[in-house]
Amino acid sequence: MFEVRRATPSDVDSIMQITREAFAKYIEIAGISDTAALHETREAVLHDLETKRVYVAFMNRRVVGSVRIELLNEKEAYLSRFGVSMDYQNLGIGKAIINAMDMDMLDMGIERVYLHTASKAFPLVRFYYGRGFYVRDVSTDMGYYRVEMCKEYQKSAK
Predict the structure, then answer these.
(1) pLDDT digit string, tens, across residues 37-52
(2) What are 5's strand-pairing partners?
(3) Which of 1, 34, 65, 96 lies 20 to 30 angstroms, CA to CA, from 80?
(4) Rounded CA gap, 41 and 12, in Å?
């Protein structure tokens, strides 16, 4: 079984490895040549631990997935650097990470979470649709077609 928790500085090397692995696959399926995630430094990940909400999934005492959430304002957040180790895909780990993020966002009163992904990355777009995201916009600001996706949280009736 696996668990999801907030990341700590001791997770940095594992987060970097998962990010590189996931984004190497991303550029392959997106049909692009490079992405900044492949060149991220240890200092950048440590900075994200201080300024964002970073979650990791553990299985067999090993970090097997991670995601970063930047709070944009009191009601909106941005998801980035989401990845699950190739050896641990299709086990529900990605869903569990998103579920943990959802609970945290709801507790904080966040109403919308955004992300970008390559429009050609069909498995990712399908995954995000299955987690309640929808396509909000399409752009070529990074030199390829990217979709901006959004997930809206329903306010609970009181």
Answers:
(1) 999 999 999 999 999 9
(2) 56
(3) 1
(4) 10
What is the maximum alpha-carbon separation in the chain? 49
What value does the mean pLDDT of the chain take?
94
Q: Measure the N-to-C terminal CA separation of the chain; round to a whole number of Å.
A: 35
CA-CA distances (angstroms) from residue 5 to 53, 55, 111? 10, 6, 21
CB neighbours of residue 87 within 10 Å: 10
Residue-range domains of the chain with CATH: 2-114 (3.40.630.30)
Q: Are 85 and 21 in contact (CB under 8 A)?
A: yes
Rg (C-alpha) for the chain, rounded Å, is 15
Residue 131: predicted pLDDT: 96
Q: What does the CA dihedral 89, 112, 40, 10 come to, rounded to 10 degrees?
A: -70
Six-digit token string for 92: 């529900």
